[in-house]
Amino acid sequence: RRVRAPDAQSDSDHPVRQHESERESESNKGTRHQIKAEKLTSFNMSDIVVKVTNGKEFRRLTQIDTYEVLAHRAMKGLSSSPNFALHYTDDEGDLVLMSSEAEWQEAVRQAKAQAETTKTNPPILRVTLTDYAAMAVETKAKDAS
């Protein structure tokens, strides 16, 4: 078995090693399911797909490493103002406000756990963006009519 330094590029990022890894798994049929299981459980933060909705539109975001990146890209695609909130539904069915890096990491952890249970690859985190400025405009319009 090959040993590599911690900072070395992973097999999935390197085309030659990825091909070698696939060929090894093909030649060793007994461990094929083990290898697939390892791939399911070894996600990076950026491997997750985030599906964001504002209730009208959806955006599918990838390469999200931090809460700050998520907030910026969600606002850029779905909100006209910086006055918004991001929520996700946790493993108990509760709508949870996400407003920090720690909360983002917990949401990712839960999405990964769900992906392992459902064999979803890559993990998917569904997020709702609430645009408070848009809500205020809609409320004023309803009150005026």
UniProtKB/TrEMBL annotation:
Organism superkingdom? Eukaryota
Under the heading InterPro entries, the entry gives:
PB1-like, PB1_dom
Q: Where is the PB1 domain?
A: 38-132
Q: Which Gene3D superfamilies match?
A: Phosphatidylinositol 3-kinase Catalytic Subunit, Chain A, domain 1
Ranges of Basic and acidic residues composition bias in the record: 11-38
Residue ranges for the region (Disordered) are 1-38
Protein name in UniProt = PB1 domain-containing protein
